[in-house]
Model the fold of this input.
Amino acid sequence: MQNFKSHFMFSREQRNGIFLLIILIVGLQCVYFFVDVSSENISINKEELARFNKEIDSLRLVQLEKNEVKIYPFNPNYITDFKGASLGMSNKEIDRLLAFRKQNHWINSIKQFQEITKISDSLLNQISPYFKFPEWVTHPKTKQKPVFSYNNKSKTFAEKRDLNKATAQDLQKVNGIGVVYAERIIRFRNKFVGGFIDVIQLQDVYGLSLEVIERITNNFTVKTPRQIKKININKATVDNLVNVQHIDYDLAYNIIEQRELREGYKSLDELKKVKDFPLNKIDIIKLYLSVD
Done:
């Protein structure tokens, strides 16, 4: 207890120091609360301030122009939720358009777009200049029934025309061959110096059905086949085989592996037993191979 009291016993000098510290603290608090030390004579250059604010406004305008959404020509049939919102369409207007498209219907005019979406005239005037409908909608052509010169009856070899010399116009006379398919056949033929080896290669032309190929072969055949040196399947290396259409490295290894197991191929039809062999392409592959 005696030690505890000793902490509160001060000498005269200590008491005087404590008293002066208290007075100093109280004085500073009074100065803080009652003395206004703020300056009332701050001068403002109004012209400089106005010039500064003008520069800030110009910078803001530049930034707004950069952030402004630019609209490019588009087909209104493919407006998405995000695209519609960016154009200013409401959710209901966008939903009406999407519901119309879900029925597999197409919008083919500006007037029809407004009838479906029910957007306001002002918004329509803003966005309609950017509408871009397909060419066949804006410039429809009168459809004419095609006239085919060739029938589906097969001709003799002498009567048939040379497929390697046929033009796109010649091919378009076949029922089922239009401009696109005719040009595709010519382009495929020109990939090879000398053209087709056999009409069976038409199977490699993308999009041609077996029925259309049959109509072509009823009127065309390869009379001037491309000259190639066939590869002996029993002596061919992997590098030889991968030069053949539809044979990649994996298939080439499988062909050689099967050849070793059979101690050589007796006929090209035995390739059907090779693992992963493309059976639907065997007639084309056989054009490049021999067993001699």
Notes: The chain has a mean pLDDT of 83. Residues 12-34 form the longest helix (23 residues). The chain has 14 helices and four strands. The beta strands are 161-162, 220-221, 231-232, 289-290.
